């Protein structure tokens, strides 16, 4: 499982982190702190995941915690589900697609940026391909993810080894001051946002807990080992970038792994690394489709989305309707977004969601205090994570910047409230919706499945 923890953000975010951290030392500190808090978050997830080893991950934990809040709990878990399904999750898939298109088209346009329209087209093609692969079966999808995620880790390890060798010939680490005060709180927040994209892979593990072997044991082990591995690897890769390329190149490079390969392996090596990054990022995209569609499935089971998204294919057990929904929304965001816009919006949402999740963590400590916990995290850790998330979530709201980029998110949440009032609270239905649901089920050979959360809680 360790290879799945390395997010593809490591191939695009180092420049964003450095530009906003203001110095080499500041950037490395941000990477280290982000890794520590990723570990804390992962251990909190491990406690909840080992206690409730069900498909759906974070939504399942929030749902169980919200049962004690009555109607307010219903609203909270719905708005989390709505924001996750319509905004944060498809944005993640879009970011993976744009990363792939940036590296792949960098081979064709080595001296300039590729046309935006061409980037979008390539992103759409990769999104469709990931959808097709995940629609076959769980086994096929898992094998593809494993192979391609391993390629990603091999790329990062090869960068570290190459950098260690070339460090005897060149060292640009001190071309700029190690630490400066040339930054602001808002920029530091953006730097943390970019780091969190690279560390976000650990959150997908609990989403497929219901399909893991012995999740009560394997989730904590996977969290600790995977996050430690990725944190150390990310720090080493960034040090190598600064040593071989220099701070100026790190700040300006869109495809930093290609810049590194050009400086060390030459043009042929740059082409090879660009193709390898494209392939490995595709593995990350496939992994995202695999885990996130299970969360959408769980959300629909609880009546928060149309019933058609709570079905699975009767032959492959793949949630095809959830898969198609994520694919469609990802392609919509690919048509209107860019990496620089997606990263702050996406991570802001995930920080907000994680605030709800860690709050649910404390609620479950009270409402399910007698439930067996194969793993229990020290209380100081979730408290620290809560404070950190509160800082990251509040900063974009209170800082004096142009917040037009958050207008789309506000609009989507308002539409979610309207949907909740009409179709969840008052249980209205559109004319012909049942006929359409039946047609889609027959077309995709899908059938409803029961909720494994209820089974786990009863056990």
What does this 3D model show about the protein?
This protein is mostly helical. The protein has one domain: Amino acid/polyamine transporter I, CATH 1.20.1740. The protein has 16 helices and two strands. The chain has a two-stranded antiparallel ribbon with strand order 1-2. It is globular and about 65 Å long. The two termini are 27 Å apart. The C terminus is likely disordered.
Rg calculated over all Cα atoms = 22 Å
Under the CATH scheme, which class?
Mainly Alpha
- Poorly predicted ranges: 453-459
Q: Widest sheet: strand order?
A: 1-2
Distance between the termini: 27 Å
- As a percent range, the share of helical residues equals over 70%
What's the SSE blueprint?
Layout: H1 14-21, H2 24-51, H3 58-66, H4 71-108, H5 116-136, H6 138-166, H7 185-199, H8 215-244, H9 247-252, H10 256-301, E1 311-313, H11 320-336, H12 339-367, H13 380-398, H14 407-425, H15 433-444, E2 446-448, H16 452-458
Antiparallel strand pairs: 1-2
Helix pairs in contact: 1-2, 1-7, 2-7, 2-8, 2-13, 3-4, 3-12, 4-5, 4-10, 4-11, 4-12, 4-14, 5-6, 5-10, 5-11, 6-8, 6-10, 7-12, 7-13, 10-11, 12-13
């Amino acid at each position: 499982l360790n290879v799945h923890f390395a997010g593809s953000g490591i191939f695009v975010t180092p420049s964003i982190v450095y530009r906003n951290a203001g110095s080499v030392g500041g950037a490395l500190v941000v990477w280290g702190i982000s890794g520590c808090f990723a570990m804390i978050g992962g251990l909190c997830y491990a406690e909840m995941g080992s206690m409730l080893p069900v498909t759906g991950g974070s939504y399942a934990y929030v749902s169980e915690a919200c049962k004690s809040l009555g109607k307010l709990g219903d609203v909270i878990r719905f708005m989390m589900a709505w924001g996750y399904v319509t905004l944060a999750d498809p944005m993640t898939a879009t970011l993976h697609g744009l990363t792939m298109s940036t590296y792949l088209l960098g081979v064709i346009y080595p001296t300039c940026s590729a046309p935006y329209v061409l980037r979008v087209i390539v992103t759409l093609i990769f999104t469709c391909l990931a959808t097709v692969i995940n629609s076959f079966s769980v086994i096929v999808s898992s094998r593809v993810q494993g192979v391609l995620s391993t390629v990603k880790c091999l790329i990062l390890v090869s960068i570290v080894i190459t950098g260690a060798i070339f460090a005897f010939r060149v060292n640009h680490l001190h071309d700029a001051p190690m630490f400066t005060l040339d930054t602001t709180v808002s920029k530091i927040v953006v730097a943390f946002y970019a780091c969190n994209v690279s560390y976000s892979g650990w959150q997908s593990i609990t989403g497929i807990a219901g399909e893991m072997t012995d999740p009560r044991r394997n989730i904590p082990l996977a969290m600790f080992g995977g996050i430690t591995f990725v944190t150390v690897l990310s720090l080493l890769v960034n040090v190598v970038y600064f040593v071989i390329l220099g701070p100026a190149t790190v700040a300006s490079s869109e495809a930093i792994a290609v810049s590194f390969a050009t400086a060390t392996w030459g043009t042929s090596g740059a082409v090879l690394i660009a193709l390898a990054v494209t392939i490995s990022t595709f593995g990350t995209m496939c992994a995202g489709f695999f885990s996130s569609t299970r969360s959408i499935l769980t959300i629909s089971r609880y009546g928060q989305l149309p019933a058609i998204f709570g079905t699975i294919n009767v032959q492959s057990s793949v949630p095809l309707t959830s898969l198609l929904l994520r694919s469609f929304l990802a392609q919509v965001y690919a048509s209107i977004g860019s990496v620089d816009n997606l990263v702050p919006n996406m991570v802001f949402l995930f920080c907000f969601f994680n605030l709800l999740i860690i709050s649910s963590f404390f609620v479950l400590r009270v409402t399910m205090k007698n439930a067996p916990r194969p793993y229990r995290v020290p209380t100081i850790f979730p408290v620290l994570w809560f404070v950190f998330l509160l800082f990251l979530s509040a900063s974009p709201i209170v800082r004096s910047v142009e917040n037009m980029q958050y207008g789309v998110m506000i609009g989507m949440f308002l539409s979610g409230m309207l949907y909740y009032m009409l179709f969840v609270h008052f249980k209205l239905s559109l004319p012909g919706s049942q006929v359409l649901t039946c047609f889609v089920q027959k077309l995709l050979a899908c059938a409803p499945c029961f909720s494994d959360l209820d089974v786990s809680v009863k056990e």
